Amino acid sequence: MNLKKELFTQCETFVNKRLQNVEEIISSNQKALQSETKSSAGDKHETGRAMLQLEMEKASQQLAGISQMREILNRIDPFKTSKTAHLGSIVITSKASYFLAISAGKLTASSKDFFAISISSPIGKLLLGKQEKSEFLFNGETIKIENIF
Predict the structure, then answer these.
(1) Is residue 80 part of a domain?
(2) Residue 31 belongs to domain spanning
């Protein structure tokens, strides 16, 4: 399997796991809301319902973030190569190796570590549009782009 496809697949797995976790939270909160019945402790009941509502709102926001990640992944062609850093590029620098996709953290492919980062992250913005062999300043340090594919 090619390196970019492998990293892309790991990002898809990351998104699917997040989606599964959020769906489980929503499902369990819905069950809890349905089982909440009025008791003699009215205030306690209302507090419990309010807390569950807050959890549901938080889960809904997470769902929105997950669908944004999916949209970003849908725009990536794992077989496209270019010597200019773009969404879907693997960028090897003097400091670290990056996969410009979604913020999925550290991934390992072909026994090497890569950081899956969003193009809207601080380092992602700096890398976007850069060419091989160019340099940029990040956190007061000059970093050289060694390879882009």
Answers:
(1) no
(2) 3-74
